[in-house]
Amino acid sequence: MARILITEDDPLMLRMYQKIFTLEHYDVDTATNGEEALEKVRMNKPTLILLDIMMPKMNGLQTLDKLKANPDTHILPVVMLTNLAGQQDAEEALLKGAVKYIVKSEHDPKQIVDMVKEILAGYTRNAVPTAVSPDEPAK
Amino acid sequence: MKLSTKIFSILGVSYFITAIFVSTGIYFSSRGEIEKQIGAKQHQTAKSSLSHIDSFLYERFSNLKAFSYREQVREHFLGQTSLEHTSVLLKEFEDLKVIYPVWKELALIDVNGKEILSANSQNIGKNLLEDPLYKPLFKKALSGETVYSDVFISEKLGNVPTMVFMSPVRDKSAGGKVIGVVEGHIDWAKIIELLGDISDEEGETHIFNKEGFEIASNHKDAYKYILKRNRKDAPYIKESFSGKEDTEVYKSIDYKENALISHVLEQGRLSYKGNGWIFVVENPTRIVFAPAFRLAFYVFLITIFAATILTFVSVFFLKRIGVNRLIALTNVANLIAGGELEKKADDSSPDELGQLAKAFNEMTDKLKQSSQILEQEVKNKTKELEEIIKGTEEKNAFLEDTKRAVINILEDSRELENNLQKFQLAAESAYEHIIITDEKGVIIYANSAVARTTGYTREEVLGKTPALWSGNMPKDYYEKMWDTIKTKKIAFDGEIKNKRKNGEEYVAEISISPILDENKNIKFYVGLERDVTKERNLTEELRKEKEGVEQKVKERTLELTKAHIKLTASISSLAVGFIMTDRENNIVVINQAARNILCASSASPLATIQGCTLQHIEDELKGAINLRTLINQSVKERKPILVKEFPFQSRFLKIVITPITELADVLGCVVLVDDITEEKILDRSKDEFFSIASHELRTPLTAIRGNTSLIKQYYGDTIKGNKDLEEMIDDIYSSSVRLIEIVNDFLSVSRLEQGKMEFKLENFDISELINKEIEEVGGMAKEKGLSVSFQKEELDGFRIYADKDRLGEVILNLLGNAIKYTEKGSITINISQANGFVKVSFADTGRGIPAEQQNLLFRKFQQTGESILTRDTTKGTGLGLYISKLMIDNMGGKIQLENSSVGNGSVFSFTIPVAKKEV
């Protein structure tokens, strides 16, 4: 059972994604800021991290940096899930090692689940989900 | 008069008279000779022209006569004729007329006077007996005589002078009976020509008929005088008919009394009884006697010349022979008469003159003796007289002295008078007005200028005081004046305003001098006045004008100063840094803002805020830009250079360099420096605003959308059967989707408009992109039952150069619109390539766009609706095409509506540059 860590400061969003992933039978863990997310990652070792960018305390990009900088966590696939539509943010995130950049408002929750499924399937097919090098962002 | 002159005069006059006699004699004798010669010549001429004309006419007459003897003519009259004969005769008539153009008409006339054949066919049938002009002549011809008429002029013959010949035709067989007449008309004009051929050098030739009428002449106006000029009273005409000898030169004077005339009576072959012409030749005496006059004149000249020489010669010889001695004797006599009794005449010559001299000398000797006696007596008397005179002389000397003294006195007084007159004259004619008053100021003298200045006549002024025209000045002026002249007794000079008789004011320069007697008492005052009104006015005008100019200069200077201050103030108060440099790159003007921006924070010790040179600024900017290079470039290219943004220390600056040009010259340049750091900060915050706004708006919307979709997808069973609930959930969902789209569109528009949207241009295959977007809208199309087809002309696709995501949005927008507005049918996508562009078109079979709305299609918030209130809000924001257009424009392409008509659908297309060659 894949464990998904949803990092989202907005309780509305968090609850919604929690619901869908639960409905889709994922093991769901949540965090409301970057710091908490890092804590959760360390504690519960998620299969995939959904990471919001705009968050209090530590934003998504900072969190991403931390995750990728930590050899224990840098192999974890991180999907940026945000409502920031700026091209720059997306590019930056991908450069920092995110697997995908999803604009929340443009997709229904189910579509997001499907995307996550696809990503996980990729990793699963490879048997061992390899870490993505910061120099070669997977796209 | 001298003897020689007398002799000279007598000789000269007698020779002159002789010369006149001689030349007059010569003149008349040669005139007689000329008369004789010319007369003979004239006679010859008259005779020869007579015979010339006579024989010519006789020949013509013979022509006619010969004709009358012709057998054919006879036969014609006897009726024994044929057409051939007739034509032969006519031909001969013609020939005759051709050979002798003098023949005007030739005809055959029967005994009844009827013309039966004529060179002029229209005359045939005419009856001569009916014509009084011809009748007598014809009858004469019928009697067997060959006849001719005199010259006549008839209207019937066209007023041409004519002469008619007639010759009878006889029938030999019938004993010479006249059976007809041959008639011929002579054109008289030809005869005149003939006469004209005889040169008029020999004089004018005239022919007069027996009535005295002129019928021909060799004069140039001959024709005019025919039968007009009558000279029947002229002596030479009369004489001709009196039967006198025809060869006589009639030394006569005609009417004009200036011609020499000869005449000949015509007695030629043509003449018949009682008929004849007079040939007259005349030469003007003016011409004829000219040589005689010339000769006489030359003789006169020569005689005079000879006489002059002769006179001189005669006088010379006379002098040689005795006149000189006579003259010498006269001279001696004159000397003796003058008292020189010692002189002696030359009496050596033995001739009469010698004896005369001798007698003369004897007489002189006697005279000498008596004069010596006389002389002694005179001497004695003289002595006595001298003594008497001595006594009187002494008395005289005294008288003389007295007289001289008197004369001197007289002369002095005359001079004095003269001087006074001179003075008066000068005063009178002086331009200045001069008055003299007595010590009380009463005018006793005024010159003529007074009337001019004051307007009062001299008579009006005399006896009055100058107060008459003065009194226009303040009181103290006059007080001062009187004080000067009366008390101080010195001259007063000044300018005064006076009044003329007519009330007009005038300005005058015055000078009043008191005249003192030996006791220093005032006797008179002499006042001079000069009207200077005009000069003053002129000066006043000049002064005003000058003041005006000065005022203007002041005003202008003030204006300029103000303008300068304003300019300086505005430049200094500019928030933008302003630097003006001259040609040598020295700073001419620099405002505070420029100093603050460029010099204030300077680390260079040289660049204080006050002393800031271009060099300092340049050094400051080094690393960011090269100011001097930019200035030089701007000056060289003569156009402004803009550096939009560059970092300077911790700030951002913008620089505009503008050359100052005047015609062909560059005077320097203006550098504007603007600190755009604040703008940059503002821009950044705007950018952040967009990000935050989009985030904050989208988050709740995403929640609505997401949760609704969750209900629909996972709780379908729960809500099933409740149709209202299903509908509401659907509406919530679509509303949220639409709201998100709207937010996205708004953000896109602001980013595009501000140029904030980034385009990542790359080469890629557009076909793939189109296929991907078709897939995207596949669901929508399927729902409406529309087919979407993509027709590729080429299999290997079209590589273009664009931003994949943005172009994807455009394609999606166009496809979405096509599907949205099409109810049934299909959407067809075509792709082609031309001129470096790939063109993609989207054709639908939808409702189409009305023409009036087509041009607004790509504007902001435009939907195919008319007003904001009638907008179809379910169809989107109306920003789709606007965004597409901005994007396509940004990528170097073009988007447009190809064509559209209501009911038939629309075709939209865009072009996009083909892929760049990859390096």
Task: Walk me through the structure.
The complex is a heterodimer of chains A (139) and B (919). Chain A is 44% helix and 17% strand. Chain A has 139 residues and is α/β, with parallel strands linked by helices. Chain A has a single domain (3-125), classed as Rossmann fold (3-Layer(aba) Sandwich). In chain A, strands 2-1-3-4-5 form a five-stranded parallel sheet, sandwiched between helices. In chain A, helix 2 (34-44) packs parallel to helix 3. The longest helix of chain A has 17 residues, at 109-125. In chain A, 42% of the residues are buried. Chain B folds into six domains: 69-191, Beta-Lactamase (2-Layer Sandwich); 197-289, Beta-Lactamase; 348-425, no CATH class; 430-531, Beta-Lactamase, CATH 3.30.450.20; 574-675, Beta-Lactamase (2-Layer Sandwich), CATH 3.30.450; 758-913, Histidine kinase-like ATPase, C-terminal domain (Heat Shock Protein 90, 2-Layer Sandwich). Helices cover 51% and strands 21% of the residues of chain B. Chain B is built from 24 helices and 27 strands. In chain B, a hairpin with a 4-residue loop joins strand 16 and strand 17. In chain B, helix 1 runs antiparallel to helix 9. Residues 245-257 and 602-608 of chain B have low confidence and may be disordered. The A-B interface holds A 10, 12-13, 16-17, 19-20, 23, 54, 82-89, 103-106, 108-110 and B 690-691, 694-695, 698-703, 705-707, 709-710, 713-714, 740, 743-744, 747, 758, 760.
SSE order and pairing:
The complex is a heterodimer of chains A (139) and B (919).
Chain A: E1 3-7, H1 11-23, E2 27-31, H2 34-44, E3 48-51, H3 60-69, E4 78-82, H4 87-96, E5 100-103, H5 109-125
Parallel strand pairs in A: 1-2, 1-3, 3-4, 4-5
Chain B: H1 3-68, H2 71-78, H3 83-99, E1 103-110, E2 115-118, H4 135-142, E3 147-148, E4 152-154, E5 160-171, E6 177-187, H5 188-197, E7 204-208, E8 214-217, H6 222-225, H7 235-241, E9 259-265, E10 278-284, H8 285-288, H9 290-337, H10 352-429, E11 433-438, E12 443-446, H11 448-454, H12 458-461, H13 475-487, E13 492-499, E14 505-516, E15 522-531, H14 533-573, E16 577-582, E17 587-590, H15 592-599, H16 614-621, H17 627-637, E18 641-648, E19 651-662, E20 665-675, H18 677-714, H19 716-719, H20 723-753, E21 761-765, H21 766-784, E22 787-792, E23 799-803, H22 804-820, E24 826-834, E25 837-844, H23 851-854, H24 880-890, E26 894-901, E27 905-913
Parallel strand pairs in B: 22-24
Antiparallel strand pairs in B: 1-2, 1-6, 3-5, 4-5, 5-6, 7-8, 7-10, 9-10, 11-12, 11-15, 13-14, 14-15, 16-17, 16-20, 18-19, 19-20, 21-23, 24-25, 25-27, 26-27
